[in-house]
Amino acid sequence: QKITAIVPAAGVGSRMQHSAPKQYIELAGKTILEHTLSKLAELDFIHTIKVAISDDDGYFDAIPQIDSRIERVSGGTERADSVLNALLSLADNPPDWVLVHDAARPLVCLSDITRLVDDCLAANEGGILASKVKDTIKRGRTHSEQTVPRDDLWQALTPQFFPYQALVDALSNALENGVTITDEASAIEWAKQPVKLVAGRSDNIKITTPEDLDLAAFLLQKQQN
Ligand code: C5P
Questions:
Q1: CA–centroid distance, residue 80 to ligand 1 (Å)
Q2: 121-157, pLDDT tens digit by residue?
Q3: What ipTM does the predicted assembly reach?
Q4: Residue 8, domain CATH
Q5: Domain that holds residue 105
Q6: Residue 165 exposed, middle or buried by CB count within 10 Å (0-12, 13-18, 19+)
Q7: Atom of ligand 1 nearest to the CA of 105
Q8: Which ligand 1 atom lies nearest to the CA of residue 52?
Q9: How far apart are CA 49 and CA 47, in angstroms?
């Protein structure tokens, strides 16, 4: 099976309140994007690593060539547009499966990725890494109106692993129909295709706000030792 990785890295990271987009912030000696790409580059089964980079954030030429399988593609307005651009750039010589992983999740561990891929290939179904919700969840605007039962609630992580053509079709149709798409699985669910939930480590955080940086630096340092 030919597997290509896609790394959406074209966000501006407005919630980080930092001058550079968050994927270019340096932690434990490397940028967040470099950490993420180095992790993926350790996986021999990946054929190509397509990184979606913004055309106008000034970093298009700054992609670390740490591995010969890394290729750049222009990102889009939203995360889903960036992923779709990357998918369409593979259309001439498409892979069987794609593994989509946020640039902003450098802490993913390799054994979680291989388990996701193995479980999905064995079941012949797409799937995502996810972790069971731990906190008590409330619904409301200014006051809590309801406590949401959490026994079947999961936090969606990445990577997300789907058959190439199914993801192209689901994402293009969902975007054309104005569906809100915050991850690949939301498009696949909308297309009524299966999304397997594969339990992954909850420290695979998406670096989003300034307080995530200290935690991520600590965890990256711990992984490197
Ligand atoms: O903004 P958020 O944290 O949800 O972004 C998740 C990932 O998607 C990040 O790695 C970000 O760089 C990427 N992204 C993208 N293109 C966009 C917006 C976000 O590739 N237009």
A1: 8
A2: 999 999 999 999 999 999 999 999 999 999 999 999 9
A3: 0.97
A4: 3.90.550.10
A5: 3-224
A6: middle
A7: 10
A8: 20
A9: 7
Tokens encoding 137: 């969840």
Number of domains observed in the structure of the chain: 1
The candidate with the shortest Cα–Cα distance to 25, out of 194, 36, 85, 42, is 36
Residue 76: CB within 6 Å of ligand 1? yes
37 Cβ closer than 6 Å to some ligand 1 atom: no
Tell me the HSE value of 224 on the side-chain side, using a 13 A CA sphere.
Answer: 13
**Both tokens assigned to 216:** 């991520």
Residues 6+ apart with CB under 8 A from 29: none
8 lines ligand 1 (CB under 6 A): yes
Task: State the DSSP H helix or E strand holding residue 192, giving kind and residue range, or none if neither.
Answer: none
Question: Looking at residue 62, what DSSP letter applies?
Answer: G
pTM confidence score: 0.97
